[in-house]
Structure formats: C-alpha cells, structure tokens
Specification:
15% of the residues lie in helices and 43% in strands. It is an alpha/beta fold. The strands form 7 sheets. It has a 10-stranded parallel beta sheet with strand order 1-6-9-12-15-18-21-24-27-29, with no helix packed on it. Strands 3-2-7-10-13-16-19-22-25-28 form a 10-stranded mixed beta sheet, with no helix packed on it. Strands 4-5-8-11-14-17-20-23-26 form a 9-stranded mixed beta sheet, with no helix packed on it. The chain has 3 domains: 256 residues; 104 residues, Immunoglobulin-like, CATH 2.60.40; 32 residues, no CATH class.
C-alpha cells in the first residue's frame, strides 16, 4: 500500500514537471518564406508578411524573411523600410530589395544576405541606403541610378562586389565598411561620373579596392585603403583623389613616404599628418596629400540645424570621444605601443570652434598644457598634436583672448602691488616709536 502511495506521488510530480516544462517552452517560430510587395497604394502583399505599417510611410519588419526569389519589391515612393535588425535571406538568386524606378525610399537596419543582388537600384533616384549589413551576395548594392545616398553600411564578407554602379552619377558613398569582398570593393563603369566616395573603410578586397572603367570626375578622399590586393585599378578614368590642403586625401596602407614637412607644397617645417610626397595611382590619378594614418569620423551632434562630425587622423587607437557643450570641451583617449611616437590631427568644423571657443582654444594632454600646431580653411580648423605613446587623454578647451589675458595680467599685477604696499604699511605701523627725550636721557 505504501509503495503504491509513493509511486502515485512520484507519478504526479513527474506529470506536473512535464506539464510545467511544456507550457514554459514555446515552440520555435519558423521564419516567414516568400516575396513581399509594398504596393503603390501602400498595402502589403501578401497581408500575412512580417511587415507592419501604421501610416503607409514607415514599414517595419517583425520577423526574418527567406525567399527563393526576391525578398522585398517596392512599388511605392516616399517610404521608409526599417529592418529593425531582422534578416532578408535568399538562396543565391533574386534581389534582396528591389527599388526599380523608385524615389525617396530609405532602407535601413536590415541584414541582407545570399541574394544575387542585395539591393537593386535601377532607374531610381534620391534614395537612402543606411545602416544595413549586406553580406554574401553576388553584388551587395548594384544599380543604374543617380542622386542616391549610400551611408554607414557594412558591405563585407564574401559579396562578389560590394557596390557596383554603372551609368550612374551624383551618388554619395560615405562612411561604409567595404571589406573582404571576393572581387571589387567598389566598381564604377560605363561611365559613372561625378560621384562622391568619402570616409569609407575599403579593406582586404580580393581584386581591387576600387575599380574604375571609363568613369571620371569622381571625388574620392578621406577613405582608408587597407591591404586590398590592388588598391585601385583605373581604365580610361581621371578622378580627384584629395580634398586639397590642409584637408588631405586618403590613407594608403602601402604608402611608404614620411611626414617631416607641412604646407601646401610640403616645404614648411613641422609635421601635419600628411605625407611629404604624393601617392601615385596612375598617370592622370594622383593623391597629392596622402594621409599618414587611418581616418576616423565621430558624431558631433547638430549645430544650427545641421549635423556635423569631427574627423581624426591618428596612428593611435581612439576611444571615449566626447563633446561637452556645457564645459566647452572636446576630448578623447589615445592608446598605442609604449614609447613609440604617436600623433593625431583633429578636424573640427569652424561652426563648433566658434560656438565653443570663439576661435581661441588650447590643448591639454592628461590635464597639462601641450604644444600643438593648427591650420584653418573656410570650413574647418585642423589641430595637430604629437606625443610618446601610452594611454593619454587629449582635451581641447577654451583659451582667453590675448587682450583679456593682458587685462587679467594687469589686474593681477595691480592687485599684487596693492597687497604688497598694504603689507609694508602694516609692518611699519607695528614698529614701536620712542620719544627723542627718552633716548637722550638714556645717553646721559
């Protein structure tokens, strides 16, 4: 009887445990499969696709999408597709997102992988491709289009080509990581003229960092060209490879010259973060002002209604960048191999220099006044600092104008003089005085 009772209790406990486990574990949700259409009237087809919209303007993914053909086909202008971190995944064919003929469409925060074309831009304009992770496609972003912005994307890891634009003009390609692609980082051809390629990391691409065929008048500067099999391959193309002096050109990992001079003709004493000789790409393609270290851009916020960034060229590792508008400081940390020479050149928009410091500033290294060199053009102020590597904090702070410093110095001297006279007068009053008659009486 006792055995049956114990066995019953054990069976009950086991059943309860299994039931609790069953209700505690949710069945795995399968990824939605198919092609999604955002129709011209704003509707989503099919309606069970994992995309929601409340205003027919912003369309947000709510789950991953897989497709054996195309992922998302857009038939409506003036919308935003927010991937919200979800993934569009193909099987090696089709398009991840197709924007044929579209304008004013933004695609952001989406992982797009394993399609023939990650994003197709054909006959479209004024679109924004921003903050996406685009990997393992035939071509990450491909198109025949103009006046688009491709910004802040990770276009890397086994795309055959990162970005391929043909018969395309006036596009802006900036702030992207374009790395480790099987053939080209960026490919412009047939022709593609008057595009801007600035501030990108173009690294370890298997054929060329940038390939240019019959494509001229493109502006290409402030990019990091690092360890591409061939940094640039140019056929029948003449392009601009720097932003003049003192803004500079690109960083080239195979550049071997030194930086001991400065100035427009690199014939002035002192370093400036720019190589003393040009980087030769080809007969008609020269970077006149190659950067001596990688280029980094940091968000500087909005000033007078416009978003700005602060650029730093440095052979140090950079961290903890901060702009303190109340304390009127710009600061960041630099780290490098102990006892090696380090440098940084900080590019700050003049609107920030004026707003924070009224054009007058000084540099601190670990809280101590530190020497620096600076230059200014119509847009930016450039501040060059060198040091011996360790971990340091660099801070740029306001400096009193020279006339204010002179006034302060005069006030300090005047105050010190008054205090000194007062002190002497006090001492004089403390010396005892004796009547002359008493003195003579003692002598008698």
């Amino acid at each position: 009887m006792l055995k049956k009772f114990v066995s019953g209790i054990m069976m009950t406990l086991l059943f309860i445990g299994m039931f609790s486990l069953a209700i505690g574990v949710k069945p795995a949700k399968s990824t939605w499969t198919g092609t999604v259409y955002i129709r011209a009237d704003g509707s989503i087809d099919p309606p069970d696709a994992p995309i929601i919209t409340y205003d027919n303007v912003t369309y947000t993914l709510t789950d991953n999408i897989t497709s054996t053909a195309n992922g998302i086909i857009v038939e409506r202008d003036n919308i935003v597709i927010d991937g919200a971190g979800y993934t569009l995944e193909g099987t090696g064919s089709g398009y991840g997102v197709c924007l044929d003929g579209r304008s004013n469409v933004t695609i952001k925060s989406t992982t797009i992988t394993n399609f023939n074309l990650g994003i197709r831009l054909y006959g479209c304009s004024n679109n924004i491709i921003s903050g996406n992770n685009i990997t393992n496609n035939g071509c990450g972003i491909w198109g025949y289009s103009s006046n688009n912005i491709i910004n802040g994307n990770n276009i890397a890891a086994n795309n055959d080509c990162g970005i391929g634009l043909h018969y395309s003009s006036n596009n802006s390609i900036s702030g992207n990581n374009i790395a480790a692609n099987d053939e080209f980082g960026i490919w412009l051809s047939y022709p593609s003229n008057n595009n801007s390629i600035c501030g990108n990391n173009i690294a370890a691409n298997n054929y060329y960092g940038i390939s240019l065929f019959n494509s001229s008048n493109n502006v290409i500067y402030h990019n990091n060209f690092v360890n591409n099999t061939e940094q640039v391959h140019s056929w029948y193309s003449t392009n601009v490879w720097d932003d003049g002096y003192p803004s500079g050109g690109n960083y080239w990992s195979d550049y071997t010259s030194v930086d001991s001079s400065s100035g427009l003709y690199q014939n002035e004493t002192g370093s400036d973060g720019i190589g003393d000789t040009a980087y030769i790409i080809g007969e008609n393609n020269v970077d006149r002002y190659p950067l001596m270290a990688p280029f980094s851009a940091f968000d500087a916020g909005v000033w007078n209604g416009t978003a700005y960034h602060v650029d730093i060229i440095s052979n140090s590792s950079l961290s903890n960048f901060n702009i303190d508008t109340s304390g009127k400081t710009v600061s960041f940390n630099v780290t490098g191999e102990e006892n090696q020479t380090g440098f940084c050149r900080i590019t700050i928009p003049n609107v920030i220099v004026q707003d924070l410091w009224h054009g007058n500033y000084t540099v601190l290294l670990n809280g101590e006044l530190w020497p620096f060199t600076d230059w200014t053009d119509n847009t930016n102020t450039y501040i060059y600092v060198n040091y011996t590597h360790s971990t340091h904090q660099i801070t740029i702070i306001p400096e009193l104008p020279s006339n204010a410093m002179l006034t302060l110095l005069m006030l300090t001297i005047l105050t010190a003089t008054i205090l000194l006279k007062k002190k002497r007068k006090t001492k004089a009053q403390q010396i005892p005085k004796f009547p002359r008659t008493a003195q003579y009486a003692d002598e008698s």
